[in-house]
Amino acid sequence: xxxxxxxxxxxxxxxxxxxxxxxxxxxxxxxxxxxxxxxxxxxxxxxxxxxxxxxxxxxxxxxxxxxxxxxxxxxxxxxxxxxxxxxxxxxxxxxxxxxxxxxxxxxxxxxxxxxxxxxxxxxxxxxxxxxxxxxxxxxxxxxxxxxxxxxxxxxxxxxxxxxxxxxxxxxxxxxxxxxxx
Length: 181
Fold this sequence. Notes:
globular, 20% strand, two-stranded antiparallel sheet, alpha/beta
């Protein structure tokens, strides 16, 4: 079931792609963007990871943490995405346990829409290192959750197609809303 904001964030424990323990509630006191991706080889996903990496330093200085979740194994994420240093947390969830808790959808229609109407993003993603893989979760539709310092989900973004993430401008607006007056 999809979540509706505002609501309490769903805490979870896992390990990052390097085996380091991770718990979402450890980030209380910071704003968080929790981003769910299809798979580590996805050209759309690679382009978005590039965009997040490009914005990370500026956003981190403004008290925002980025947590990226992939439906691949840790090894696959390290192979496709982490081959270039990424400054934020990356998680692997091949069994979709975290995906299911956050109501992430699967849609053939969303996949077809992205392939038909987002060709420029596919090409950009290929140039950033994305290559289609044999991930069985190809129909996962991305989603983003903006989480406040107290662990509440302030904004939910369920993608309309398999390339659709929350606009970067909305992430910046969320950061700005959290700044002291």
